[in-house]
Here is the input.
Amino acid sequence: MAGAVEFQPETLSLVAAADLSAKQFYFVKVDSNGKADLPTASADRVIGVLQNKPKSGEVAEIRVLGGTKLAASGTISAGGEVMPHTDGTARAAATSGNTVRAIALEAAASGDIFSAMLVGPYKV
Here is the structure.
């Protein structure tokens, strides 16, 4: 088996591509080397939310489905659809065509850590 990928129900373990120790509860993607990294564009396909604080080369624990905490980048309403911002934080999915990745379980303001339910991606 190439690489050391561990998959448990709702959680995926990948090697961190960079120092993500200050990015707990941010959305992450898989980079071209198969490592966990932050999204850099709105078109990036995120796979879940970082649950720990790995440094480069350490194991990143990623929640891919179910309940999680998220870091908010703006105002989010309880029950609102959530999508990743280009820096990996969460924002309200208010525009038609946005890809939803979570439903907020509580209201949040920019800088808050809030509870959410990850869902399979779908378009607004």
